[in-house]
Design brief:
Blueprint lengths: L1 E3 L10 H7 L6 E3 L16 H14 L5 E6 L1 H12 L4 E7 L7 H17 L4 H7 L7 H13 L2 H13 L15 E6 L7 H10 L3 E6 L6 H4 L1 H13 L6
Parallel strand pairs: 1-2, 1-3, 3-4, 4-5, 5-6
Helix pairs in contact: 1-10, 2-3, 4-7
Keywords: Hydrolase, Plasmid
Protein name: Beta-ketoadipate enol-lactone hydrolase
Organism: Sinorhizobium sojae CCBAU 05684
Length: about 240
C-alpha cells in the first residue's frame, strides 16, 4: 500500500495508517516532490507532471502493482495514476479530494496560490479550514502547524499551484477507472465536499462513498480509528460494497 500526502504535509501525516496497516501490508509513505526529503520538480509543473513523478517512483521502487491512497493533493495524484496507468493500481482510496470546484471555490484557491509568491506559506488559513475547535483535533492541528511552518516555500508553491488548477485535469476519467475506488471525506470539509465525493463515486464503475461525520479535511489524523476501519474495508474489496 502506497500513501501520498497533501500540500504542505509530509509522509508522517500518515502515521496512524502506517502503524495500523504495517501489520498486514508492506506500507510505503512517500514525500511528495518539494516536501520532506523529496526533491522539487520544476516550477510550473502541473498535476500531470506530479502523476508522471509518481510513475517514476513506482519504477524506481520496482513496484509493479499497488493499492494507492492519496489525501488532498495526494488524492489528485492517485486519481491521475489510476487514469494513466490503471494496470499498476489494484485499488484506489481518494481521501478529501477535490472535483470540479464551483466558481467561488476555484477563484479562492487560485487567489491563495497566487499569493504564495508574495506572502509566503500561509499557516493560519489551512488550520482554520481544516480543523474544528474540538479537543480531539488539537494534537493533529499542532502537528499540521509544524509541518506547514517547516515546508520548503518553493516546493510548496509549485505543488499548491498545481493543486489549485488541477481539479479538472482528470475529472472526465472516472468512468474508465475500474479498480475498487473509495471516496472518503469529512462531513465538515468546506473544500473537499461530500457532494464532490458523491459525484466522483457515481461516475466510477466500482466506486463508493464514505463520510466521516463531524470532521473536516485532516480526517486521517482527527478520526484515525474510523478512517482505518474504512480503509481496512477497502483493502478487502474486489468490488464496491453493497
Amino acid at each position: 500500500m502506497i500513501l501520498i500526502h497533501g500540500v504542505g504535509m509530509r509522509l508522517e501525516a500518515w502515521a496512524p495508517q502506517i502503524a495500523a496497516f504495517a501489520k498486514t501490508h508492506r506500507v510505503i509513505a512517500v514525500d511528495m516532490p518539494g516536501h520532506g526529503g523529496s526533491e522539487k520538480i520544476p516550477a510550473g509543473s502541473t498535476v500531470t507532471d506530479f502523476v508522471a513523478w509518481f510513475g517514476r517512483f513506482l519504477d524506481d521502487m520496482r513496484i509493479a502493482r499497488a493499492n494507492i491512497a492519496g489525501h488532498s493533493m495526494g488524492a489528485l495524484i492517485s486519481g491521475g495514476a489510476a487514469a494513466s496507468f490503471a494496470d499498476r493500481i489494484i485499488r484506489l482510496a481518494y481521501l478529501n479530494g477535490v472535483y470540479r470546484r464551483d466558481p467561488a471555490a476555484k477563484a479562492a484557491v487560485l487567489a491563495r496560490a497566487a499569493a504564495i509568491r508574495t506572502s509566503g506559506v500561509d499557516t493560519k488559513g489551512p488550520l482554520l479550514r481544516w480543523f474544528g475547535d474540538d479537543p480531539q483535533s488539537q494534537r493533529a492541528r499542532e502537528l499540521t502547524r509544524a509541518w506547514l511552518e517547516g515546508v520548503d516555500p518553493e516546493g510548496y508553491a509549485i505543488a499548491y499551484t498545481a493543486f489549485a488548477s488541477g481539479d479538472e485535469t482528470y475529472a472526465d476519467c472516472w468512468p474508465s477507472v475500474t479498480c475498487p475506488a473509495l471516496f472518503l471525506t469529512g462531513s465538515g470539509d468546506p473544500n473537499s465536499t461530500r457532494e464532490m465525493a458523491e459525484q466522483m463515486a457515481s461516475r466510477t464503475p466500482n466506486g463508493w462513498v464514505r463520510i466521516v461525520d463531524g470532521h473536516r479535511h485532516m480526517v486521517n489524523l482527527t478520526a484515525p480509528e474510523t478512517v482505518n476501519a474504512l480503509m481496512a474495508e477497502w483493502l478487502t474489496c474486489r468490488e464496491k460494497p453493497v
